[in-house]
Amino acid sequence: MNITKHIITRNECRLPLVIPREDGRNIPRFITIHETSIGLEKQPAYKDAKHYIELLEHPKGDPRVAYHFLCGDNQVWQLLPTWVRTAHSGSTEGNSSIGVEHLVNVETNFDKAIRNQAKLTATLMKMYGIHISRVVPHKYWSGKECPARLLAGEYGWDWGRFIRTTMDYYEKKDFFSDVDEGVK
Ligand SMILES: [Zn+2]
To answer: Does 14 fall in a domain?
Structure first.
């Protein structure tokens, strides 16, 4: 499966870099795991990928809020190049990490989507030399209960299983091959 590139172009760098570099790029040191979740049963089906992508393209609130990837069950979208720093974590350092969102709704297979999220996380670990100890839930940065279903241990998954699955992909070198780093 290839990653669907849907790079949001309204402006490139949403936040100032923590340590400005000559080339103006952010170097990710952490990967932050998110979930678009109020649960499989409650969340209306209209809250699909299109819904979330439109929210990012036409923000009603803080226009700096965005994330890099959205993982569905049979499609993964990349919404920003990995070097872009953006407000997805609620902390300065967290906002320098790569934000990987898991699409949760009634029409998305939770198991398949979270496996895509794990495989993508393994890919990013390999690309940037990020250790598994630096793969963290959104909650790590700000205390927000995200990824809520995963942290609550629902649908047969919990944080430990997600980390083990990510390491499985990493050790088997089962990676995506087409992440956009935004390097020209
Ligand atoms: Zn989150």
So the answer is: no
